[in-house]
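ok so I'm stuck.
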Amino acid sequence: MAKILVLGAGMVGSAMVRDVAQRHEVVATDFSAAALEALAGVDRVSTQTLDCTDRAAVQAAAREVDAVICAVPGHLGFQALRSLLEVGSKVADISFFPEDALELDELAKQTGAVAVTDIGVAPGVHNLILGYHDQQMEVRRFECLVGGLPIARHFPYEYKAPFSPADVIEEYLRPTRYVAQGKPVVMPALSEPELVDFPGIGTLEAFNTDGLRSIMQTMAHIPDMVERTLRYPGHRKLMLALRESGFFSDEPIEVDGTPVTPRAFTSKILFDQWKLLPGEPELTVMRVTVEGIEQGKEVRHTYYLDDRGDPATQTSSMARTTGYTCTGMLECLLDGSWDRAGVTPPELVGQVDGMWERIRAHLAERNVNLSHQVD
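replied:
not stuck anymore, here's the structure
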């Protein structure tokens, strides 16, 4: 039995705490005492209020454990990861920060730290799939369509955030990068919408967000690559209107003599609007397509995920699909099947024999299942 530190006990973090505690001792930390109260009484779990921006506190906690899961909000993730790498930690990270994680690779190698970043569902699972097939074939096209959605659609947003609204807004702000005909393309987020039908779900709208991340560097030899977000039709236009009207701006404005940041205000309003109610049904849908030449033939691999929240454990689908991918990687860190010093994105993990199959089996044990079709 190992001892694991979990930074962040939100919706996904708490699901990982409960999963890991079935096998190991867990120290769950969060800035919010209320978030930690929900974990009171869980076997093999102790809780600690911790500010992840406090470098000394994070490092002191990390030195007492065998490995760390980092599940803090995106705007805090890079700093938290740096603190962990400075003390040589083993880290599975899902914090989805805007900075380039590979900038910390040299630091990790110097301290002997072993870190895998973006190891959730998207990014995460689709990276593993791409890395796996990149070793099996000449990949010419990669596409991932993915979204987390409530099953019931409610006016006006027809959306509930399975994680922080601030992180969702960040996705709608970051410029989108993808690769077309061998050349990098930069487009605004929310651009190039298209309608796509999904069995058992219906018609969804796909649009650009910056989901390729490290793949832009590590898989630059692939001529066509894109990741797109899925929402119910209509949501994108509403978000575009808010963004273009300045509601997502970080520039303070003065209201009755008080400076207010529009983005912080909007996030506060949307937090209640987008919050999943206890037991509210929701889903994660993802379609990953990998096309190219395999054994001399044109081949298309299609993976499909339609995962629903678990009403028995009150665990959301996004928490399951993201969290259990991360806990699968954690087990690989603990048993030494992944011991490469440095910061590694998931697509490079997927290139190593047996790693994608190992994490896929970990997901399947928790009833997170991806179908696979070859054409």
